[in-house]
Amino acid sequence: MNSILRIILQRLGLGLLTLFVVSIVIFVAVNLLPGDFAELILGQGATPETVATIRRDLGLDQPLVLRYFDWLRGMLTLDLGTSFSQLNRVSNLGGGSDTTTVVEQIAPRLSNTLFLAAVTASIAVPFSITLGVLAALYRNTAFDRSANIFTLSSISSPEFFMAYVLILFLAVLNPILPSLSNIYQGMPFWERVEKSLLPALTLTLVVTAHMMRMTRAAIINLLASPYIEMARLKGLSPMRVIVKHALPNALAPIINVIALNLAYLITGVVVVEVVFVYPGIGQLFVDSVKIRDIPVVQACCLIFAAAYILLNLTADILSILSNPRLRHPK
Amino acid sequence: MPDPLVKIRNLHIEGRSDESWSPIINGVDLDLNKGEVLGLIGESGAGKSTIGLAAMGFTRDGVRISDGTVEFDGIDMVNASAAKKRALLGKRIAYVAQSAAASFNPAHRLIDQHTEGPVQHGVASRAQSQEDGIELYRKLRLPNPDQIGFRYPHQVSGGQLQRAMTAMAMSCRPDLIIFDEPTTALDVTTQIEVLAAIREIVEEFDTAAIYITHDLAVVAQMADKIKVLLRGDEVEEADTRTMLSSPKEDYTKSLWAVRSFERPEKPPAEPDAVPVVSVKGVTAAYGKVDVLHDVSFDIHAGRTVAVVGESGSGKSTAARCITGLLPPREGHVEFEGEAMPLDYKARSKEQLRQVQMIYQMADTALNPRKTIAQIIGRPVEFYMGLKGSALRDRVDQLLDQIELDPAQFRNRLPSELSGGQKQRIGIARALAAEPRFIICDEVTSALDQLVAEGILRLLARLQDELGLSYMFITHDLATVRAISDEVVVMKDGKVVDRGPKTEMFRPPHHAYTDLLLSSVPEMDPDWLDNLLAERGVDNIGDAAVDKM
User: Fold this and answer.
1) Do A236 and B60 touch (CB under 8 A)?
2) Can you tell me where the transmembrane regions are (chain A) (predicted)?
3) Mean pLDDT over residues A216-239, rounded?
4) Considering only A137-151, A208-222, A242-256, B480-494, which range has the smallest mean pLDDT?
5) Exposed, middle or buried, A260 (CB in 10 Å: 0-12/13-18/19+)?
6) pLDDT digits (tens, 9 = 90+) for B234-266
7) How far is B136 from chain A, CA to nearest CA, in Å?
8) Of the four listed, B215, B254, B373, B547, which is most buried by Cβ atoms within 10 Å?
9) What share of chain B in percent tops pLDDT 70?
């Protein structure tokens, strides 16, 4: 067990290191973006003096390195700073002192995105693994081919197209599900699930192909191994040979593909959010880039990076644990 | 006379290569009665396993039964539905595979795999089957039978796995078991245990068996009758004693004769002669664990020193120390009286040239994308600096030396050669450096006996012509007898015994040498019985090793 613990700690350390490197990349890249918040916000009325004032107020006149460490310290204490756009609104409207922090702005959006990802995953993962197992079982039959064609064409079509097809069939022609996913805080759980079902189904179509095909390939890859031949020579049913004898040994690659797709569900669903007006983090991210709201953009980037790293780390650890040699050392 | 349990008539099997079907088995007949053991022998490619599997009504992917009938207890196994066959497989016909390590599912415990058959076939409940499994483990003399089943395959040694697999085959008390080379991958001392266990349990339950092997001495111990196969054809069949004492066909006789090759031993080297290679007090470790302990031996000019021992005894590690691939932790290696740097990276080109290697798996030791001329030409160019036509002439000369026609082989790829030819290319590549010393690491163990003998004869001839010295790593004592001048016996990383060959093969031996020697199966059907009687039931194979 010690060796597993050591491997996990090692991976965890490497994950943190990666996150640190990524934070530098994000910071530098975001600050290299052309355009300046102050100039953008002032528009025609930008005089050198007013630009300088706003820059001073926001700390943009400080040297880059100093600002990086400032930001890093904030990140470590979960103080993501104050959103520029909120600042701007407060000063324009002459509002009170309760300016919105980045955390307050991101938190509800992130939880919405995680909710959608969770709903999608709980449909997509069992669905694609089952489909993959069946495709491996009935390999090279009509079922296998149609499953492949179906999943491949859904991954190849643009997401918005799949979204509109689903809206057409499930919301317009047969009004079963709501086409708008305008969820809000405090909405009852099942209503939220119902509202997010259409975007979740769209995303399921997008992510199924990878997972299903990897499941199928990983299983078929093992079918020539001596222990599968042994299982067949023991007179076991083909289903049992695959589920009981091939699948447990094929888990590592499947887990890794699942992790990649889950990461995609958290970081890459802007288009689907827009189609269904779903208030997720993707939309917030795009809006913030548009107005050069640097603190929000940076925080979103870092969250995306962390999600990728964390999910891959989990996948790594799970695939290590799926290996009986490591779970049960000699 | 009742109908036989297995009745195969005019069996034709084809295998697909590229787009066409080519024959593997050409009309073989086979009868097996209840409780009888048939030995199927032949070289690789003879179709032994294919026939064994066909007796179960099973063919591997890309193989089909094209003609003939296979009947098991009156049931037509060729045309039976998949479901009908499944009802028989595992329950009435069981299979024991060559490599138990690869044939047990790594993800499940042994006992779970054992009980799966009986439970799925509805023969016994899980609890009953588990109890029975433990009882079988005890019968097969597995250590710690109550607990061993609850381990995963990787936690159990090869010989034990092979016995656990025999137990698994027995789990439904089948009428027929196919043993497909069950002891080929095992050390001699372990092999005895497995052989004894298999024979005992087959006799106890009166199970019929088809025992597939390429080792004649093994089949002599196990089978009531023997069928010899050659490239998909039956050569002859007879009961074991007749077959051993008076084989009819020339091919069978040639198989029997392979073990007779033995070169005369050379006189011992002069006492004051400087050895070509001298290993002095070498201790080596992988990571923090020492795997070699104070190993010393000399290899003299023109001599062959055979290093023998079971897997894990440190034979190959010693070779890695000599080549400098694994720098020893203590001690050093001398070449013609001069200490060589421990690490190969610190050695001069000349020092590297003098020590060459030939590997066990010629398949993986040759670059599959280079032609034979390129493979052999590379060391010629690197060490000798030859180029152009001089290089080509030298490659041709080397091919002549290994008895392959240069015009025919020069431009071929390794994949276009047979196993024996590939090993010859491995030899030519080592010769290309014009070394004084060659390490041969199990060079014949992956080859059939006839082919292996050819390689041994070639190595012996080259030694006489070129004055080479060999370090010959092997676990096969017949090979040792055939080629060596001196023998070094290793166990657990130590040299336990050494001396000239004649002395080593003549009693009295060191206890471990004696165990190794007496464990090599002999072509005498009573050999195993006599040995077991001599050693006592609890003191065979592994158990005997553990006591030392």
Assistant:
1) no
2) 12-33, 114-138, 159-177, 250-276, 296-321
3) 90
4) B480-494
5) middle
6) 888 888 888 888 888 888 887 776 566 777 777
7) 18
8) B373
9) 97
Cross-chain CB nearest to B152 (options A227, A234, A324): A324
pLDDT digits (tens, 9 = 90+) for B205-230: 888 899 998 888 888 888 888 898 88
Check residue B382 and report its DSSP letter. Answer: I
User: Tokens 């240069």 sit at which residue?
Assistant: B406
Give strand pairing partners of B236.
B228
Contacts of A191 (CB under 8 A, 6+ apart): none
Residue spans per domain, chain A: 109-290
Look at the domain A109-290 and name its fold. MetI-like fold (1.10.3720)
Strands B37-41 and B20-32: unpaired
Residue with tokens 């610190």: B346
Least confident of A97-111, A164-178, B50-64, B354-368: A97-111
- Tell me whether the omega of the peptide bond preceding residue B264 falls within 30 degrees of 0, making it cis: no
Q: Mutate one of A138, A223, A230, A232 to test the B interface: name it (highest B CB count within 10 A).
A: A230
- Is a pLDDT exceeding 80 seen at residue A86? no
B289 touching A, CB under 8 A? no
Please, which pLDDT band fits residue B268 given cuts at 50, 70 and 90? confident
Task: Dump pLDDT digits (tens) for A240-264.
Answer: 999 999 999 999 999 999 999 999 9
Q: What is the mean pLDDT of residues A3-22?
A: 87
For the record, the structure tokens of A221 come out as 């890859």
Q: How far is CA A150 from CA A23, A155, A213, B344, B461, in A?
A: 39, 9, 12, 57, 66
Chain B residues with CB inside 8 Å of A236's CB?
86, 90, 116, 120
What ipTM does this complex have?
A: 0.78
User: String of b and e for A2-40 (b: at least 16 CB within 10 Å)?
Assistant: eeeeeeeeebeeebeebbeebbeebbeebeeeeebbbee
Q: What is the DSSP string of A270-318?
A: HHHHHHHT---HHHHHHHHHHTT-HHHHHHHHHHHHHHHHHHHHHHHHH
**Residue B528 pLDDT more than 90?**
no
Which residues belong to CATH 3.40.50.300 in chain B?
A: 6-260, 277-506
Q: Whole-angstrom Cα distance, residue A308 to residue B48? A: 53
Mean pLDDT score across all residues of chain B = 85
Whole-number Å distance between alpha carbons of B219 and B216: 5
- Kindly give the residue spans of alpha helices, DSSP state H, lying in B77-187: 82-88, 100-103, 110-120, 126-139, 145-148, 158-170
Q: Which residues contact A155 (CB under 8 A, 6 or more apart)?
A: A205, A206, A208, A209, A210
**Across all residues in chain A, what is the average pLDDT?**
85
For every residue of A114-172, DSSP letters joined together read HHHHHHHHHHHHHHHHHHHHHHHHTTTSHHHHHHHHHHHHHHHS-HHHHHHHHHIIIII
Evaluate the CA torsion angle B468, B472, B476, B480 in order and state its sign.
Answer: positive
What is the CB neighbour count within 10 angstroms for residue B539? 13
CA-nearest residue to A222 within chain B is B105
Tokens encoding A264: 């995609």
B102 contacts on A by Cβ (under 8 Å): 225-227
Residue A198: in which H helix or E strand, if any?
helix A197-222
For domain B277-506, which CATH number applies: 1.10.390.10, 3.90.1170.50, 3.40.50.300, 3.30.420.10?
A: 3.40.50.300
**Domain boundaries B6-260, corresponding CATH code:** 3.40.50.300
Task: Classify residue A234 as left (phi > 0), alpha (psi -120 to 50) or beta.
Answer: alpha
Residue A122 is predicted with a pLDDT of 94
Least Cα distance to B117 among A220, A230, A137 occurs for A230
Contact B102 A233 (CB under 8 A): no
CA–CA separation, B346 and B328 (whole Å): 14
Q: What pLDDT does residue A29 have?
A: 87
> Can you spell out the DSSP letters for A58-93?
HTTTS-HHHHHHHHHHHHHTT---B-HHHHHHHHHH
